[in-house]
Amino acid sequence: MKKIFNILLLAGTLFTSISCTKLDEKVYSTITPDKLSGKDLVYQLAPIYGQYRWLLEYQSLWDMSEQSTDAWVTPTNADGGWYDGGKWQRLHQHTWTAYDPHMESIWNALYYGVSTCNRVIYQIQSNGGLTADDEKIVSEIKVARAYYYYQLCSLYGNVPIVDKFDQPENYLPATNTRAQVLNFIVTDLRANMDNLSDAPNFGRFNKWSAKHLLAKAYQNSQAWIGVDKTDSCLIQCNDIIASGKYSLDASYAHVFSLSNSTSPEVILAFPNDEKNGVPICWPCYIQTRHGLNGPSFNASSPGFNGLRAGPSFVDTYDESDKRRANNFAQGQQYNLSTGAPIMSTDGSTPLIYTKNISSFTSAGEFDGYRFSKYEIKIGQKTETDQDWVAFRYGETLMMKAECLLRKGDYQGAAEIVNQVRARSFDASVPDAVKIITAAQLSANAVVDGVSVPDGVFLNELGREFAGEMLRREQLLRWGLFNKGTWSFFIPTNDDNLNIYPIPQTQLQANNKLVQNPGY
Amino acid sequence: MRQIYISAIMLCLCLNFCPPVHANALILHAGHATAPITITGQVTGPDGQPLPGVSVSETGTKNATSTSAQGYYIIKVDNPNAILRFSFVGMKPQDIAVAGRQTIDIQFESSSVELQEVTVSIGYGSIRKEEVTSSVARVGSDDFVKGLVTSPLDLLRGKIAGLAISHTSGNPANQNVDIMLRGVSTLAASASPLIVIDGITGGSLNAVNPDNIESITVLKDGSAAAIYGTQGTNGVIIITTKTPTAGKATVTYNGYASIDKIRNPLKILTAADVRRYKQDPAFSTINDYGSSTDWLKEITGTPVSQVHDLSVSGGNRNTSYVGDVSLRQQNGVINETSKRSLITTFRVNHAMFDDKLKLNFNISNNVVTDHQVPVETYANALLRSPTLSVYNDDGSYRELNNTGINPVGLVNEAKGSNEYNQLMMNGKIAIRPVKSLELSAMGAYQNDYNIYNYSTTFRSYAATLGGRNGEAYLNGGRGENKNLELQANYSKTFSKHIINAMLGYSYQDYTKEAWGMSANNFPLDIFGAWNIGSANSIKQGLAQLSSNKFSWKLIAFFGRINYNFDDKYLVMASLRREGSSKFGVNNKWGYFPAVSAGWRISNESFMKDVSFINDLKLRAGFGITGTAPTDAYLSLTTYRFDPSIAMYDNGQWVSALVPSSNPNPNLKWERKREINVGLDFTLFNKVFNGSIDVYHRRTNDLLYTYSVPVPPNIYNSIFANVGSISNKGIEFAGSVQLINKDKFSWSVLGNVSYNQNKVISLSGDVYKRDYLNVGETGEPIQTYTHRIESGQALGNFYAWEVSGLKPVGNQWQVVGAGDDSPGEQQKKIVGNGMPKVFSGLTTNLRYGNLDMTVALRGTFGFDILNQYRMQRETLSWIQTYNLPQSAFDKPFGGNDYNTAPPIYSNYYIEKGNFVKLDNVAIGYSFTIKNQPYLKRARIYLSGQNLATITGYKGMDPEVAVSGVTPGVDVLKNYPNVTTYLVGLNLNF
Where is the SusD-like N-terminal domain (chain A) (predicted)? Predict the structure, then answer.
């Protein structure tokens, strides 16, 4: 027995001397926080801006801002395409629920942006004393965060405000009212915008894009929380105009072209790149074009034939309005390289987009005009090269015009409207068509089957900013979002539907959240 | 030599046929002798060859010797009634009464010890079957599935109660076996059992030649598997490969050839069908492109696969070896799909210093090349209009937008190939300083290299429609697995007490490196993947490069005691303390205890008179096991560079540095505790053998990826331990030896298991959920398939219930939705994809030289989501695509064709119950006489997956059922097949 004990003792000694009991994780390609330093700040900033592009990916902010309106619709195709469990139908007919995937995907995308902003601010601040440059960067990030909150406020209304990264353990953010959220946006923008550079910057916030965002917040204040901020909006618009940093582009098409980084009109863009952009501008091509349309652009992937223009919305354009041809792909499609008309696969039918949509649940494959505002590159890859225009000077001007309308200055508004409109008509077009008069602006007009004050201006907003993620807000400002009739939408007259529901998954994950009324 | 050989055989025959009366007479006669007797003789193996080194001893004495190189022995005994014991490694020991004889020649009958004493591996050691106190099942090579298998685990299909193995694809390159032990015990961690190959924990199945496996043992319950700690929950599969047999070198050849045929092909429209329907005004818009093509026929064939296996084994008492070379060429039914592997194995065992020191070296290597077609090939063959031609007039592939991809083009112009090399080697040294103690150390090293290359030509779809003149991918990887196992075994017998104790230490270290590159647009169509540098996309900045590396470690200390009192009362207790680098800093280490006990009732004196019971044992066990997360670093905050959210700043693109996980310092293993009660019995003169097990397993701290609010979190999900799940069940396995005569034997083996699963909770203190939606219906429906809900069983299909088609509007009428577009609120449980009952039945018949095995397998109590029907059984696609013939069925006996957009509903949920004729094998063993070289010859025929009885409408009701989304018959990328095989065994 003693012998055995000795042997075991020897073995045990041998064993403990060679054995290893350390369990640290050794990382190679994985990045852990201890590997980060101040030198990577520029990389840390990147997702704040890069995330904006994800708002235009599949199940986009674009869908939520445009497809629930008179301007656009995704019917179910006769081949069953774009049924997708009915989510596109529900989006258009305002029968969405908290379970619909759009609600969650955009909530996540926006709050991801908020979180990134808070985190990077914290990282900069925890590096020690802030330099002047650091202060500027923090201000810029706060402005960038305000854009995320602007969209959250616009879509969901009552959302939690989280303004810093370091929170107590197990902290869960609670719902704030829409008024609190809007106030937070305005306060943050006012406090920080003057710290930003005033030089134009295509892809990053500067002082002027911050002011533009502030003007937008004021513009929608009445519709969102019932507080009129027309005067405040006007001040911001006038500041931007007075700066002389931006001007209207001579060509409407150029603003949305592949070379729009040279346009004097663009205040802020979300740049895409076929090399760096895994996300794509989904509505710009793939969501809307028919599969046969790919060869027009020698594109490497076919379109999915979903998104169509609302026929009544198309009808608001005069035939002579160049924006009509720019914003909608219509009629016979051609191979842009050879000029040959595009035919169906068996050669029997030409690819002709017709304006009307025959059915909401079984649409013809060529039914409906398509969104074609953004130039499509010849040889386009699945990843697209379009730079999305988030803010442009034309919008600043039209915001000012809207303020003037609200203040009863129809003449002043008409001047701006015609200034913006002029480039979209040939000189030969008669003034009666080309020019919108103060008298026309002051009269009631029928929009979506409802006679409304300033209806002519609302139609002009629709035409000028078609597909720029503004239509829902426009209809809400005019009270038509639940009262108009268009495409396959009949009025719900339900004001609860003016904001979207808080996604069900978020309610599940955070019991401090309160669902919006009526859901 | 030949004479000796023949006379040995003659002697053996003589002995075998000696009439009993004669033998008795000898014994009586011998009773009178008193003087010491010298006995001589020769010992031969089952093959008739002399066996050197056989131990020959007189029982009850210390009198012993061993055989010479020629198998001869001389032993003197005092007692003419002495009993001589002949024992040899790997052979059934033989006790022979001397009975006064002076010459006793012995031939060992079987190379297997099974008949007498089955030892069962229990992990870090083995014990006699009678001593097992937990739920352990062993399958020897004789009972394996007979045929060509893609994975060694396929050998066990239908053979072990509670172990469900499904074969869901006929792809020769696909080795992933759908395997589930006693229900699903995890949500997000791996459901794969731990594989132990010849003592190497985490051994690679790739390195094992399926034809070279001696036995497979499965540790099923917690009390058995707890010795493997965090790797034990899904069971432990212990693979023992064939060991060297000492003696004159023997050479074995085993070869077989097989063909595959698609089983039960899906019924889709032919060109003639399309034209017939086009006559109907309702379908006049169907595109008729003018040709008639059977796409399935265009891409498939009846390939011949072949396997050749040659091994040599031999040695003497001290040193023995086995070497084996196996070439396996498996060709799939889809053209250009195949797998070729060359497995070489070499093993040496050596014992010295009176067996005080034993050395063992083992090396095996598998070189594999497989060829694959793009995954979408088969689906496109089902989808593409039969009126389209394969080629255009100019010989190019006919490719059109919106008609799917030409499958022939995919097969011929898109080549994927995976080459890998799996090396596994280990060495073991065992020292026995005193008889009762053995110390051993084992080191194992595994290394796998793999290179995957994929390329398309200028004639491919990617070029003609996608504008990419040639695409190429080249991905490589290297994995390195190192084990060190130290063990001390102590065994001692004190009168009626037998104690076996074991202490051990285990260290495992895994590192994986991977890299990849891809580019397209080549100047010439000649390189495939082998000149990526020439691609034009590199100059355009559109090529991609990547690399990554990770590692993890596992360390454990463990011990076990087996105590046996008088072969009546048995106790086993074990404890493992284990840590893994994968766990959070607060939970690096855990304890995994187990205890089990057995009572051999049949050995009690009161059972003496119960003659019909040969053996009866009641056992019960309790054990705790774990499941570790699959990936490393899950407990850490991590960041990554994400080009997809790059920023454009002053004309430059800046990559984004973003969080990729939330920290979870509390991350730990899933903790499963299990109670198992079982009864083993052998009845009616060993005719009937069986065991019943009842278990209850509960897994707590389930790992799942919970979505969390951002902010305050930096990432939108966290991998956390939340929730619990339970599985209860009963298993029965039994065998009946109906007839057991020399000429004729017939046995039946069967097993059946029933499991009931319940999700207890999905909430913890921090993360709370009532339910989780999982699974994916795929395009174009895009919703989840299953809902995991507390209080419910796993595997519930959660969908809309439809009552028919709406009279107008081209939509389904969803129950509860009225005229509205149906929403989430109308969804309900419409079925469950987790089978309740698994069963297997095998019958073995032998008549003379002819033997036959028939194996049936049945699975019951589950539903299947028929994804193919769901996605294609709608006439809304008829204009451009091919559809199943059933698309023309009018749903629910209504008057309307289904042209509504596909939705996920109960209409596509079908009963899955099936019984399969899984395996039939017929063999004939030749009687070899007067052959100097050939010792044994056998030919056999076998068929796999021959017939199925089921009400299921799809191709095959055998679908993947493990995991949290069971029962989905996915729109496959490879059809199921029936395999027919002919084989030949030769022994020299």
Answer: 62-218
